[in-house]
Design goal:
This protein is 48% helix and 16% strand. It is built from twelve helices and ten strands. Strand 1 (10-15) and strand 2 form a beta hairpin. The model has no long low-confidence stretch (mean pLDDT 92). InterPro entries: ClpP/crotonase-like_dom_sf, Enoyl-CoA_hyd/isom_CS, Enoyl-CoA_hydra/iso, Enoyl-CoA_hydra_C.
Length: 264
């Protein structure tokens, strides 16, 4: 049996307004190589420009992992020198920042392990849904790794200071129930129901008014920023009220029918 080729280790498809990105390296529990990070960035950029895509879902192939972190088998070539370490860190930071500041809603659909860089990636998404058997960890303290401010702040913004310290100090694997109790994930569902559950959420979001959804995403994220861009927040709110979707929403409500939003 041959392993997955580099070209096929990140897959993309668009269905019913949802853009899917699948990390397809199941032999290594979807561990991320430099090439996989770069392909992810390309797909995210393409979906951001595609008006047909209203929501993006990220997931891992198979049932063993969402993303289990960096592909340690590649460290000899990708993280063996200070320059290589800096390049890898810059690439991962760029993708995580791109995902966190993404103009459209994002969902992490999690099976199995979600650790290290995988958890960082999930935290950069807006929503996280997992199965009952999922496990979460930031093993940096067991590897001697430094963990930069942006990733730590996203964890703190999600679970609070006390749980963030527990996650980092212990480097333990936490169960899906513990993750839910900490606020690390939005929902925990049985394995057999996850795909339908996430698809339903994604379709629901895709059917709502894009200008409203995207503006509230931006404003909610700005509420956690050190220097919020209130001028842009106000402009996005004004754009909603000036849109044809606002008129469509009112008409559909009065006519007791489902609205057809265009994002304009």
């Amino acid at each position: 049996m041959h392993g997955t080729s580099e070209a096929d280790k990140v897959l993309s498809r668009v269905e019913n307004g949802v853009g899917w990105i699948t990390f397809n390296n199941p032999e290594r529990r979807n561990a991320m190589s430099l090439d996989m990070w770069a392909r992810t960035a390309d797909y995210l950029e393409a979906y951001a420009k595609d008006d047909k895509v209203r929501v993006v879902v990220l997931t891992g192939a198979g049932d063993k992992a969402f993303v289990s972190g960096a592909d340690i088998s590649k460290f000899g070539t990708e993280r063996s020198t200070p320059e290589a370490i800096a390049q890898y860190a810059e690439t991962t930071k760029r993708v995580n920042d791109q995902l966190y500041a993404y103009p459209k809603p994002t969902i992490a659909m999690i099976r199995g392990y979600c650790v290290g860089g995988g958890l960082g990636l999930a935290l950069a998404c807006d929503l996280r849904f997992c199965v009952t058997g999922s496990q979460f960890s930031v093993p940096a303290a067991k590897l001697g790794l430094g963990y930069a401010y942006p990733g730590i702040k996203r964890l703190v913004d999600t679970v609070g200071i006390a749980f963030a310290k527990e996650i980092f100090f212990t480097a333990k694997l936490f169960t899906s129930q513990q993750a839910y109790e900490m606020g690390l994930v939005n929902r925990v569902v049985p394995e057999a129901e996850l795909a339908a559950f996430v698809d339903d959420y994604a379709q629901t979001i895709a059917g709502n008014a894009p200008l409203t959804v995207n503006s509230t995403k931006f404003i909610i994220d700005q509420s956690a920023a050190l220097d919020p861009d209130l001028e842009k927040c106000d402009a996005m709110v004004a754009a909603c009220f000036a849109s044809s979707d606002y008129r469509e929403g009112r008409s559909a409500f009065m006519e007791k029918r489902k609205p057809k939003f265009t994002g304009s």
